[in-house]
Design the sequence.
């Protein structure tokens, strides 16, 4: 092994320091690209249940969900296609995606097309002021209803 | 060229003075000395290069100039972007024309890029030391596609919003794979890619800011640096490719009789191309307006939400499966492009279109079988549907792995293997795979452009689309 001189020691030390400093700088820069909070999934109020027509899906465009109300209760399903994120439209069988034609039944199960997953159903509850609360952080089984009667 | 070389050339009377002045015109000029002082006559043959590379250079120049003008008025904010583009079109004098030129030049650039790629491939101009330049060229293709994609979001209209929503979810589609293995909750590559790209879960202000930065600074700078290296490599590799052995006979060395002086011959040719490109662009920009739909509305998808035409091939593929069509197959195609010069080292073919008669035959056969097989697959999926229509509840893994996209790719690879075995030539196998996959890409793209309507359903013509 070569004898460590002062010069070679300093050279090695400086190289290690340079690599480490460069690495930290690059990681810091790249870290900037992924923000800590992107606040997407959340609990939202959508109004009192009485504003939703009975026996039909109503689109809440602010939160991209469909609310279904009947005489028993209310349920909420995502209106975003699991394929590439387009907004689903309602058709006779259930939902259909305008972008690549994925179709789902009324329970959100995939019928045809490239969609990889069934639609998400969200937990519905009621706030003290009487408004419905859709908790988009909590998924529930398909067709789970919040009983209003 | 240094002064010693000039001394070596036989100089007599006026002719000699003329030669020196021609050489000096190039060597003494910062911009012109990107050229060598003299070039081989074969390189000026229109039917060899078709001037495609230089056309791309001019298109980029036009894009930069018009882009800077557009940037004076454009505001990269969700609230104001759309209005500022409208101002460019309706308020700024000549703004509509500048925007049209910018849009059509970018489309032209993608189109000519693919032609240039094909030209370089079919003339075998990636062999030997040109290997590095081929890879740089493929990188430039990727950068140019990202440039177009990032520019597409900026007007913030419905088309922009939904095309980029689809694009960003393609970036996230690795989730299909991680979902299958069941590791998405701990190791969400797709989600990470998407967040890096658009800075959130849905396209919004962070996405617009990022795309703006990418579009006006990062990607153009990257492209310019790559172009610098691209041109430098051409000089290092002994000028443009041609038959024979250009490396042994560098353009700047004395004794290369029969060479053409760059000044003025080559420059005239280049000027002619610049003028033609400008003229064609001006005519198109006067006649056809760049589209601008209503302002982006995140609550309602455009139907159909089509990307620019050069991404519609990929959009057709993702309509079978997001991961295999949007990530797997494009990546494999890129890997194939980059690996061509490493698979194929038959250097005797440099500079000959299609490597002669055998190559031309292989090209035709590959074109024919690829069109037939791809068309057959498209016919099946349009006429009879696919697995989920036959077996409801088909697992996602099967849908992802077995679809017209993966099947056609598999066929192209098998076809190329067969050609390799039959001819024993890696060059012929490369031609087979390149031709077959490019023909497939063209067919899928044509399908996306002309035969897909609302809900991505098949229509023979746009006039058959249902009125919504």
Sequence:
């Amino acid at each position: 092994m070569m004898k460590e001189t002062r010069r070679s020691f300093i050279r090695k030390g400086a190289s290690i320091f340079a690599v480490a400093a460069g690495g930290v700088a690059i990681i810091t820069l790249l870290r900037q690209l992924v923000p800590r909070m992107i606040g997407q999934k959340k609990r939202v109020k959508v109004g009192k249940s009485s504003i939703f027509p009975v026996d039909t899906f109503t689109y809440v465009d602010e939160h991209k969900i469909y609310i279904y109300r009947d005489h028993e209760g209310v349920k909420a399903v995502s209106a975003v296609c699991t394929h590439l994120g387009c907004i689903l439209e309602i058709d006779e069988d259930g939902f259909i995606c305008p972008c690549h034609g994925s179709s789902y039944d009324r329970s959100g199960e995939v019928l045809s097309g490239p969609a990889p997953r069934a639609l998400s159903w969200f937990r519905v509850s009621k706030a003290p002021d009487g408004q419905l609360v859709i908790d988009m952080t909590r998924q529930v089984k398909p067709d789970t209803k919040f009983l209003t009667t | 060229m240094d002064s010693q070389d000039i001394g070596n050339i036989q100089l007599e009377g006026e002719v000699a003075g003329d030669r020196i002045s021609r050489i000096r015109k190039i060597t003494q000029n910062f911009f012109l000395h990107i050229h060598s002082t003299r070039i081989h006559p074969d390189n000026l043959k229109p039917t060899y290069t078709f001037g495609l590379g230089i056309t791309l250079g001019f298109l980029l120049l036009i894009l930069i100039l018009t882009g800077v003008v557009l940037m004076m008025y454009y505001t990269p904010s969700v609230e104001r972007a759309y209005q500022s583009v409208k101002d460019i079109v309706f308020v700024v004098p000549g703004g509509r024309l500048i925007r049209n030129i910018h849009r059509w030049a970018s489309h032209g650039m993608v189109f000519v890029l693919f032609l240039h790629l094909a030209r370089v491939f079919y003339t075998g101009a990636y062999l030997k030391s040109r290997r590095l330049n081929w890879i740089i060229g493929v990188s430039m293709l990727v950068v140019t596609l990202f440039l177009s994609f990032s520019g597409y979001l900026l007007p913030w209209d419905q088309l922009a919003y939904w095309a980029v929503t689809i694009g960003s979810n393609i970036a996230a589609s690795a989730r299909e794979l991680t979902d299958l293995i069941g590791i998405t909750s701990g190791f969400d590559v797709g989600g990470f890619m998407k967040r890096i790209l658009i800075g959130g879960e849905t396209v919004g202000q962070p996405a617009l800011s990022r795309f703006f930065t990418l579009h006006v600074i990062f990607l153009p700078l990257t492209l310019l640096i790559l172009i610098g290296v691209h041109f430098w490599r051409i000089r290092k590799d002994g000028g443009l490719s041609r038959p024979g052995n250009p490396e042994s006979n560098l353009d700047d060395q004395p004794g290369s009789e029969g060479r053409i002086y760059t000044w003025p011959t080559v420059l005239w040719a280049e000027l002619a191309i610049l003028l033609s490109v400008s003229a064609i662009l001006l005519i198109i920009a006067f006649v056809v307006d760049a589209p601008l739909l209503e302002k982006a509305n995140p609550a309602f998808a455009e139907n159909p939400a089509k990307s620019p035409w050069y991404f519609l091939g990929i959009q057709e593929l993702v309509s079978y499966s997001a991961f295999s069509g949007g990530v797997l197959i494009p990546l494999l195609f890129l890997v194939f492009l980059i690996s061509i010069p490493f698979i194929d080292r038959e250097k005797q073919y440099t500079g000959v279109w299609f490597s002669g008669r055998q190559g031309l035959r292989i090209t035709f056969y590959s074109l024919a079988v690829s069109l037939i097989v791809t068309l057959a697959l498209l016919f099946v999926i349009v006429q009879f549907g696919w697995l989920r229509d036959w077996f409801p509840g088909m697992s996602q893994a099967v849908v992802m792995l077995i679809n017209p996209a993966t099947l056609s790719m598999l066929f192209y690879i098998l076809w190329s293997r067969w050609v390799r075995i039959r001819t024993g030539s890696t060059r012929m196998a490369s031609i087979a795979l390149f031709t077959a996959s490019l023909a497939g890409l063209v067919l899928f793209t044509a399908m996306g452009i002309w035969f897909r309507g609302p809900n991505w359903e098949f229509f023979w013509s746009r006039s058959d689309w249902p009125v919504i």
About this structure: The first helix of chain A runs from residue 6 to 31.
